[in-house]
Amino acid sequence: MDTPRKRGRPRKLRPVEGSATERLSRAGLHAQAGRQLREMIVTGALAPGAPIVEADLCARLGISRTPLREAVKMLAAQGLVELRPNRSARIAPFDATHITELFEALSNVERIAAEYAAQRLSARELGHLRDLQETMEAHYRAGDLAAYFAVNQAIHSAILAGAHNATLVEMHGWLFARAERARYFALGTHARWAESIEEHRAILAALEARQPDTAGRLLAAHVMHTSTGVLARLAATAGAAA
Q: Could you tell me which of 138, 135, 145, 175 has the C-alpha nearest to residue 157?
């Protein structure tokens, strides 16, 4: 006859090492570190060509080397970091040819998106663009570059969203992320801010007037003017260092 088993509280299961929760926690840590590093690179806090000193960055970000290295790999895939064999990684230097090619592609994607947006933007979406324009101009008058740039980014994204074409949005997201650092760099002179404001006003007017060709042409030219500003500032920086 079998002896009846004693009933009692069920045993608590021990967490399995490397469980899904733990992996998510680690993934969240390196993703957060990646966002912080990206911001430092975009704003120039980590200069182009500077080596990545792991000990310093771990201390600044309050993380260990493992999530830092994962973050660095993520940024390398975005073209912001160079991984070098047998040497420390470094912040990717600006490359004039790459910048030219990148902005050529970006300008054409944004041109097509603006043409569609001029036909497809809803009244609510146009109102949102007007609000963004006013906010951006307020930041310009206050001389707040970080806030100005954030709203500028939002305007470009809103125009892409207004095209109502998911494929264009996906293509733009890939290019826009890689152009972000160069776009911020171009705004290093206050004169470019003023030009950008005027160009955005004209683009918004064309979108409101439902003029696809004009909107596309103006937005493509605006993107290429940014590329010109980046290359001019790079040349000036190189000349000053010589």
A: 175
pTM of the model: 0.80
Q: What is the pLDDT of residues 126-148, one digit of tens each?
A: 999 999 999 999 999 999 999 99
Rounded Cα–Cα distance for residues 161 and 169 (Å): 7
**Cα–Cα distance for residue pair 70/31, rounded to 1 Å:** 8
Q: Report the C-alpha gap between 112 and 90 in whole angstroms.
A: 35
- Cβ burial of 197 (10 Å; 0-12, 13-18, 19+) is middle
Enumerate residues 6+ apart whose C-beta is below 8 A from 170. none
Helix/strand number for the chain, H first, E second: 9, 2
Query: Residue 86 — left, alpha, or beta (φ > 0 → left; ψ -120 to 50 → alpha)?
Result: left
List, for residues 31-42, the tens digit of each pLDDT value.
888 889 999 999
From residue 179, alpha-carbon distances to 26, 51, 150, 186, 197 in Å are: 28, 21, 14, 11, 19
> Nearest-5° angle of CA 50, CA 29, CA 80?
30
Distance CA(121)–CA(118), nearest Å, equals 6
Residue 194 burial (CB count, 10 A): 11
